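Reply to dn_fold:

You asked what the input looked like. This is it:
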Amino acid sequence: MLIARKDCRRVCGPCAGHSDPYACPRCGNPRSYKVRGLCDRCTLHDHLDTVFNALPAATSGQYTRMRTTLAECEQPRTALNWIRNAHSARLLADLLAAGQPLTHDVLDAMAQGGGRGGAQSIDYLRGALVTYQALPERDELAARIERHLTRVTQRSPEHALLLHSYVRWSLLPRARRAAQRPAGSKHRIHWAYTRINQAAAFLTAMKVLGLTLKDVTQHEVDTWLAGNPSTRYEVRDFVVWAARRGHSRPLLVPHRPKADPVGIDDNSHWEFLQQCLTDTGLPLDVRAAGAVLLLFGQHLARIAALPTDALSTLNGHAVLVLNRTPIHLPGPLAHLLAELVEQPAPSGWAANSPRRWLFPGNRPGQHLSDTALARRLTAHHIPIRAARTTALVQLAQDLPPAVLAPMLGLHVITAAQWRRRAATDWSAYLEARRTGTRPVDE
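and this is what came back:
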């Protein structure tokens, strides 16, 4: 604190030959403006002592690393505010004071009876405990799907056996495979929730009609779909599984119609890319995310989940690993991403988390959500879906699906679909030669 003047300059107390009345009496650092008498770090130590000293001796070793990391975090005010004010921190203190062993099962039991707000606080607490290694990591995807299944079967217990079989043998294996790809877990959770809900709604509607699943005919299916076709088409997954396992007769549920993706013209696409690479007036994270979107057509969920170690050097060239294949980066994009990695982490949990992300979020150990990243890009008028469509079409024109899929993390069938959209497989030309007509694109 600058409390005196010397040689016409403002100086601190020690430089002026006086003691500093604003210094922390324990460590000498400046006192906090939020607490009395001490600095943020010393106050944090006191609060951590209050919370963690209540631990039973048998479990104290489990929290040693978490306590040490919080006490030594780069921005103690963030941890101090959490310990003092957050509902999730109060839940932690109550659990430790009660001497309960802190496990995932205990947290799940608390989340079941705490309502939506309580479940969110438990998830926040779980994230902090896993980040600082007080709790082991677990298959959060399977746990959340099974928790949702329990809620659904409690409302419809008569369908519990069939829904459990469907989730165990169909939904969960596919959700786990998809979640192994970067940023796949969150979207797969919502994907599974929707299918469980629609399967339960379909079974309930058939029960109201007095029908079991084996008695359902195509007429009942069509009538039910007509009630709300925008969402009920998702029951197709359950109906196909039930027919294959002999639980019903073969029934037809068409795929929900999807409009073909629409891109932007090439000139606009390259203008947006040039803006992201050179316009220093844009925020650095917007420029970096926009450039990766416009060059590689990555989904925003994948861009937001890029760790800092995805950017590395191979044989003297800067490379970016989006899936399994290192991609050589052009110079401007390499410099842009390197600048993003080297900038200091923003305030909050992003600076206190041991894992580093290119786009850090505001939760312990978490990256920025794709929704927040989309809002930032949209605020600077970067068209997300259209830009991604154009980028993927351009890449599919130059690369075969077998190369494009592992490079971008696409399924090979998806890569082949983009190849067909690019119309570079010469099939139209060969068909024109066979029929004697002129190809449309000539």
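Residues 185-208 form the longest helix (24 residues).
Hope that clears it up.
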